[in-house]
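Hi U.,

Before I forget, here's the chain from the pilot set. I'm dumping it here mostly so it's searchable later in email.
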Amino acid sequence: MSSSNDAPDAHGDREGQPQPQPHLQPQPPQPRSTDDAILDAAAELIVHLGVRRTQLSEIARRAGVSRPTVYRRWPDVRAVIGALLTREIGATQATVRLAGEDRAAFVDGVVEVAVRLRDHPVLGALLRSADSDTLFEYVVERLGTSQRGLLEALRAGIEQGQAHGSIREGEPVELAAMVLLIAQSTVQSHRMVAALLPEAAWRRELTRALDGYLAP
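Structure:
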């Protein structure tokens, strides 16, 4: 930045004289990678047709690639969905920034991520699906890549809160795992209790559960 006391430059520019603005060339949009094209196609099919009717051949057709191209990356539809979940959960997590380093900011961030994942079109379609085995396997039976990313973010936030003095003592990874379980089960059970817990109450009670668990 320049101040009003700057001397004229070699071209004799004077204070108050309009200066030419640089001409910015619009940047062309970046082309999608083949992986993203395949995952985008899978997302569209899951949302509009459901999990059962999502076939690998149709994913390839909608993505504009051959079936061998998909097979070289993922062996079956479940593997594609696992990669899709990893991408979408990671992207959703990245959209939330903590407003501070204390417990309140951390809990608010966890609740916001939970809400955005709950309302995500792909995750919502999987939760509503009559064939939820894929989501069950990914979320319950094994620790997926995206969950490990969430655990790492939770661990880092808990360590910040512990340094701040507003989160209780304890092994950060263990606390992070329990926070993940609380938030994850709340998201998965949302439809079951929606009539009992409208939106404001759902947020409020999840916030209280997490805040009470983490308080010193």
